[in-house]
Amino acid sequence: MWHDGSLFVVSVTRGLIYRIVPDTGLVTEFAEPGGGPNGLAVDGNGSFWIAQNGATRTRSRSALSTRPGLQHINSGSSIVHTDILNRTFDAPNDCAVDARGHVWFTDPPSSPDHRPMLGSLIEFDPETNDSNIRAEGILFPNGLAFDFDRAILYVVETGHRRILRYGLLPGGGLGPVQTHALLQDGDPDGICLDEEGNIYVATGPGNSIVVVSQSGRVVQQVDFCDTVIEGPGYFPTNLCFGGPLNDTLYVTLASGGRVVAFKSTLLGASTVADGKQ
Predict the structure, then answer these.
(1) Are 254 and 268 in contact (CB under 8 A)?
(2) Which of 25, 175, 179, 260 shows the smallest number of beta carbons within 10 Å?
(3) How far is CA 89 from CA 92, 103, 214, in A?
(4) CATH code, 162
(5) What are the tens digits of pLDDT across the range 44-70?
(6) What pLDDT, on the 0 to 100 scale, is given for residue 276?
(7) Alpha helices, DSSP H only, in the chain?
(8) The pTM is what?
(9) Residue 248 β-bridge partners
(10) For the chain, how many helices (H) and strands (E)?
């Protein structure tokens, strides 16, 4: 996640959030949510929201034991608060904030043999502390992102290699689901959008970034094995736009615990409700 001139990255296995200043290369520990922090988003007030899987997927090195749920960090602070524990969650994966400041997150169950299982999409209202399941029966719901106008929510269904598309209803809730795109390779994970509405998809074991147009057509694929990046494999898990001009695509690589950056000819769409980066 890009915010306030820095890149913020979660470490699922260490229970940490790191802050990276690209201009200097400085990497510092920003906060310790504990457990397995998985997804990260920022709202219009500058508060961070963390999809916390509670170390249900991988063993955490953090001494802080945390139940699966949603956590937040107030703007200007690094103190982590736990917000949603009013129901039982499986393993919250990723999150995004809509125009009303509501936090949406995916919740895929864990399985002993790592098979994808049916999970849900949840909406959380910070003012009332209410959480509501808005969609169910998604085969491993994963990354999610809003379009530029925050009228459409895209959700990755990793188990079927699909990107699902939901329209947000004026009074709240979601319209009927549509299949926006079907990918052929890899297991789609995190996503982000550029200013033209193209969706950038990290494909995990596919070792690539796939770009999907507004019409749902794959228009570009960047294979890491064809780049000059060296190291022990790749496994891209998530990505976002950032940088002073919002023209740099940052990608997390689970293999080797690395972050790489690509310059883009297109700018990223805003990731916060008030349009500020």
Answers:
(1) no
(2) 25
(3) 7, 15, 32
(4) 2.120.10.30
(5) 999 999 999 998 888 889 999 899 999
(6) 42
(7) none
(8) 0.94
(9) 242, 263
(10) 0, 23
